[in-house]
Design a protein that fits this description.
Layout: H1 22-37, H2 40-64, H3 70-79, H4 81-98, E1 100-103, E2 106-109, H5 110-115, H6 124-135, E3 139-147, E4 151-156, E5 165-168, H7 171-175, E6 181-189, E7 192-202, H8 208-218, H9 226-246, E8 265-272, H10 275-283, E9 288-291, E10 295-301, E11 307-315, E12 321-326, H11 329-343, E13 347-355, H12 357-362, H13 380-394, H14 411-414, H15 418-442, H16 450-456
Antiparallel strand pairs: 1-2, 3-4, 3-6, 4-5, 6-7, 8-12, 8-13, 9-10, 10-11, 11-12
């Protein structure tokens, strides 16, 4: 049956447009039903706390929070006081959908208590919502598209053969971004889908262990194996999610593969006195490649046989400026006298900047002043350039490096299988998602990872 358009004649025969006639009544009815449904969970929780208060607390302590020790549970409440109310929302929904209560020595599903004889008095819409909630599994989803204030399109990470789902979501879609990961329950309501209410925000950079464990547990199972899949997801996802609150991510020291030294972003600035002389001097060096328009690199062969750059030379913001960049202290200590010996009087040294990429990537906060040691504000473009230089150096031979997350395969090897290709794409999207978040927090342009896609010859 063809859907009636807002400006079509109303099917009731009144002669009015549909939007001026029956549509108003239908929308009012839907809003009333939605408001009624929204009371289902509070009514269920109120009834449970009234009838089974101590059993509920025991079920949450041993079930939802059961993987935390006493110290971690206390720190969760103290250190994450603002987030704890949201954590309790997820905990109570878990109780309704997946929890059990020990009553007179027997385990009873909370869903059976709510929907069986003697349960709370629900309206028809409220009962339907509780039935949907208690029968729907958690899923792990990637945000494919967002219409802020309206909707999300979610792709199932664990069962990618499932078609992406358009979810009507007002509040959550305002803060969501493409490539975000979340765990949630998607409920079919009338002619659309909605999120149940509880949402687990999943940090992509910490999601690999979670996804690996889930895939191992779900091996051989399909979405049709509803009971098994529902139980596995309801145990593993909340456990990992809570762990991320109380066990912070350790950021490793970033080191140069050739020297083992910590990575630093060191940039020397020079005023160019004689461009032709500088170009001529660099063209005479056998280990230097490039040009004034593209920039120069001083190359060497590493122990693994791959070509790497010990320094790069690029034009500055002014016509008479160049910058020479290094990514370890040793390269800078050796590179500056070498460069000045080659360039001679064609350049004059002006200043040096040093930045720790680990600090730049992990500690910058939204709205934080970007100051140099001299007190001048660093332009966001300059920060972006420095981080892009670091990223390109860090990932120079990424495509041919064995990675634990790819089971010891290199990205170039992994893409030859369908599963490996999906893993590599997920990894690249994770890099891009993390960079987009950092760039937004640091108020700078985001660095593109397109060069990695191109290196592998694949598309997003």
């Amino acid at each position: 049956m063809k859907k009636v358009g807002r400006n079509d004649p109303c099917p009731c025969g009144s002669g009015k447009k549909y939007k001026q006639c029956c549509l108003r009544a239908e929308e009012a009815k839907k809003e009333a039903e939605a408001n009624d449904r929204s009371e289902a969970v509070p009514r269920a929780i109120q009834w449970l706390m009234l009838k089974h208060d101590q059993r509920v607390r025991q079920a949450l302590d041993e079930g939802f929070f059961g993987t935390l020790n006493d110290d971690e549970y206390e720190r969760l409440q103290v250190d994450h006081a603002e987030a704890f109310q949201g954590i309790l929302v997820n905990a109570m929904e878990w109780l309704l959908a997946d929890g059990t209560l020990l009553i007179q020595g027997r385990e009873h599903r909370v869903a059976d208590l709510l929907l069986g004889r003697g349960g709370p008095l629900f309206s028809a819409e409220q009962r339907q919502w509780i039935e949907l909630l208690t029968s729907t599994r958690l899923g792990l989803y990637e945000v494919v598209d967002v219409v802020p204030g309206e909707s999300l399109v979610l792709r199932d990470i664990l069962f990618p053969q499932q078609a992406p789902v358009l979810v009507r979501e007002k509040s959550g879609s305002r803060d969501a971004a493409r490539l975000d990961l979340m765990a949630a329950r998607i409920l079919p309501v009338a002619d659309h889908h909605e999120l149940s209410g509880a949402v687990y925000s999943i940090p992509r950079q910490r999601s690999f262990d979670l996804i690996d464990e889930l895939r191992n547990e779900l091996k051989g199972r399909t979405p049709d194996d509803a009971t098994d899949v529902k139980e596995i997801l309801s145990v593993i996802i909340p456990a990992h999610w809570l762990e991320w609150f109380v066990r912070p991510l350790e950021i490793p020291q970033i080191v140069d593969r050739s020297t083992g030294e910590p990575i630093l972003l060191i940039t020397d600035y020079y005023r160019v006195e004689d461009w032709p002389a500088l170009e001529h001097a660099l063209s005479g060096e056998t280990d230097v490649e490039g040009s004034r328009s593209e920039g120069w690199d001083c190359l060497f062969e590493g122990d693994d046989g791959l070509q790497r750059s010990r320094l790069s030379i690029n034009s500055g913001r002014r016509p008479d400026q160049i910058k020479v960049s290094y990514h370890t202290q040793r390269y800078a200590d050796e590179g500056r006298p070498w460069f000045e010996g080659v360039a001679g009087t064609a350049v004059v040294f002006r200043s040096r900047e040093i930045a720790d990429p680990k600090g730049m990537l992990s500690q910058a906060k939204p709205g934080e002043d970007r100051k140099t040691a001299a007190g001048d504000e660093v332009p966001p473009e300059a920060i972006g350039e420095a981080i892009e230089q670091y990223v390109r150096q860090l990932y120079a031979d990424w495509a041919d490096q064995p990675l634990p997350v790819l089971d010891g395969k290199t990205p170039r090897e992994a893409i030859h299988t369908a599963d490996g290709l999906e893993q590599v794409k997920f990894l690249l999207h994770t890099y891009e998602h993390g960079e987009a978040q950092q760039a937004k927090a640091q108020q700078r342009p985001a660095v593109s990872y397109e060069f990695l896609w191109q290196e592998l010859g694949i598309t997003p």
